[in-house]
Write a structure and sequence with these properties.
Length: 293
Amino acid sequence: MNAPSPTLPQASLDDDALAHALASGAAEVLLALRAEVDAAGGSFAAKELKDAGDAAAQAWLAAALTAARPADAVLSEEAKDDASRTRADRVWIIDPLDGTREFAERHADGPLAGQWRDDFAVHVALWERGVGLTAAAVALPAREQVMTTADGVVPDDDSAAVLAGNRPLRIAASRSRPPEFVAALAERDDVELVPMGSAGVKMMAVADATVDAYVHGGGQYEWDSAAPVAVARSRGLVCTRLDGSELEYNRESPWLPDLFVCPPALAPRLRELLDTVGVASVVGADSKVGAKE
C-alpha cells in the first residue's frame, strides 16, 4: 500500500500546536490508506491494512519529530525502545495507531453495516522532567476530531444524576475482552457498560461526557494512556491507578497495569463499586494478558 506523506510541521510551533499537528498528520496518513482500499474496490486483507497503518503512521511521526524536535527523545509503540530516553529531559510518548483492529474493520451488521469503524485513535504526548505530561493531542481520525490539552474545555458531566440514582453509571468497556471486574460490574442494575474499541477512544468518551468513566485492569503501556490521560486531566478528570496512586511516565519499563478515569464527583462512588467486585486483587498485577485493547 502507498502511504501518503503530509507536510511536516514547522519547528517554530510551540509544543501544544506541535502535538496537534503531529496527531492530525498521522490521522491524515491513516485515512488515506483507507481511501486507497475504497478506491481499489473495498477488498482488502485486514492484516495488511493493520500493518500498513502502524508502519505508515509511525514513519510519518518519526520524520516529523526528527524535523521539528531533533533533540527530544521518543517512546513509541511501533519503534525500538531506546533506554537513553529515561535520562532525557523531554520525551514524546506516541501511539501511531491505537485501535489497530478497529482501523482495519468494517461494521458487520446493523444500520452501519459495511461502513468503516470509527473507534481508533492517534496518541501524541510530551513528557518533561520534573513536570510530567505537559502537552498532548488525541486524534480520532474517522470522526475528524482532535482533542488537546490546549483546548481549555471542561465537560458538562451528568454526575449528579448518577449519584442521585436517576440513571446508571456508564462505563466505557472493551468490545471483546473487558477485565473480569468490569464484566462483573455489568451485572449491577446501576451500571451500564458501553462497548467501544481503542483506549484513546474510551478516555475521550469520558473527556466529552459521552460516558462517565473508564477503568482498566488488563494492563497497558505508557503509549496507550499518556496522551489521553493528559487531555482528560486538562478537562478536570481524575486519572490515576486503580488504587488511587499516580500514573508515572517515562519509566524504564513502559508497562502500566491499570487505569482509573472519571469526573471528581464520581470517583468515590466508582471506587466503592470497584471494591464490591474485588478490584484490589488486580491492582499491581504484572500479567500482560489482554494488554492490547
